[in-house]
Write a structure and sequence with these properties.
Bug_dom1, alpha/beta, three-stranded parallel sheet, BUG, globular, 10 strands, Extra-cytoplasmic solute receptor, seven-stranded mixed sheet, D-Maltodextrin-Binding Protein, domain 2, about 325 residues, 11 helices, signal
């Protein structure tokens, strides 16, 4: 009798597992069966928003029930990413996760956010900081700007406390031995608007985010905080070659809640990896000076873990932990 009971229990477990797997696969086969939201944790018009919208537009044919971008700002990206992490784990909410996923927790501004709350789908692109000032600024070189910072307080705009462009400015300041007045905004776009209005002295956002204003003659880039010169801007020097050994940048990608079934994750990856290769998306990225840098789910997951440890150490070194 006891053996019979054990056999029945084992049989029920096997059948239950097979049923669950079959259900997940069936769900993946029918995905997407309803509307899908893509959460962007920063304001409209910034780099993350524009990349997300271009990618979603390239993938929209695969979402017959509609797919839409939703901006949820606040906390340097913590508000939107926390919303996405706690959404229903069925693929109906996809989040544009950024490097802040592994910086904010270590500055004490992550509001409980942590990278393992997500199952990464794919990385989409990467970008490095560009030290940018008004076109009519008296500072024509990075040295001019940093020398001035030794005698006056420079107001440098970023995309939020603990966000990557805050870390970029702080890292540059530490390397150069100067301090900045860091001014946080809810994304790069409002920071750039403030710079254009003369309310701050500089921004340290990505080149792609200032490129249109540089082309219009309103802003100028003094240097990029990259390991080497950016292909799209070969005439702009790196801080490193100017004597300041600092390279800090962002990445952007897609993630879903950690309990999302793997077959659905695979289906989403299939859709968006194809979209990232589309002529329309490639044309947009090239035209906006954005670097396409695709990693699959497993490789992206390893990068999250590695970068989490790297930024933990950097933030401690810079003394940016909020009390």
């Amino acid at each position: 009798m006891k053996k019979l009971l054990v056999l029945l229990v084992l049989l029920s477990l096997v059948l239950g597992s097979a049923f669950a797997q079959g259900t997940a696969e069936a769900t993946a086969d029918s995905y997407p069966s309803g509307p899908v939201s893509v959460i962007v944790p920063y304001s409209a018009g910034g780099g993350t928003d524009l990349v997300a919208r271009a990618l979603v537009d390239a993938a929209k044919a695969s979402f017959p029930k509609n797919i839409a971008v939703e901006n949820r700002t606040g906390g340097g990206g913590a508000v939107g990413m926390s919303y996405g992490a706690n959404a229903k784990a069925d693929g109906s909410v996809i989040t544009m996760i950024t490097v802040e996923l592994v910086t904010l927790p270590h500055t004490g501004t992550g509001a409980g956010l942590y990278y393992d709350q997500f199952k990464p789908i794919m990385m989409v692109n990467s970008a490095y900081s560009a030290v940018t000032v008004q076109a009519n600024s008296p500072y024509n070189t990075l040295k001019d700007f940093l020398d001035a910072a030794k005698t006056k307080t420079m107001r440098v705009g970023n995309s939020g406390v603990g966000a990557i462009w805050h870390l970029a400015a702080a890292g540059l300041g530490k390397t150069a031995g100067v301090s900045f007045n860091h001014i946080p905004f809810e994304g790069a776009a409002p920071a750039i608007t403030s710079l254009l209005g003369g309310h701050i002295d500089a921004v340290t956002v990505s080149y792609a985010e200032v490129a249109s204003q540089v082309a219009a003659g309103n802003l100028k880039v003094l240097a990029v905080l990259a390991p080497e010169r950016i292909a799209a801007t070969p005439n702009i020097p790196t801080a490193k070659e100017l004597g300041y050994d600092v390279a800090i940048g962002t990445w952007r990608g897609l993630g879903v809640p950690k309990d999302t079934p793997q077959p659905i994750v695979d289906k989403i990856y299939s859709i968006f990896s194809q979209a990232a290769k589309s002529d329309a998306f490639v044309k947009f990225m090239n035209g906006s000076n954005n670097i396409i840098d695709v990693l699959d789910s497993a490789t992206y997951g390893k990068k999250l873990a590695t970068d989490n440890e790297m930024f933990k150490a950097l933030i401690a070194e810079l003394g940016l932990k909020q009390q």
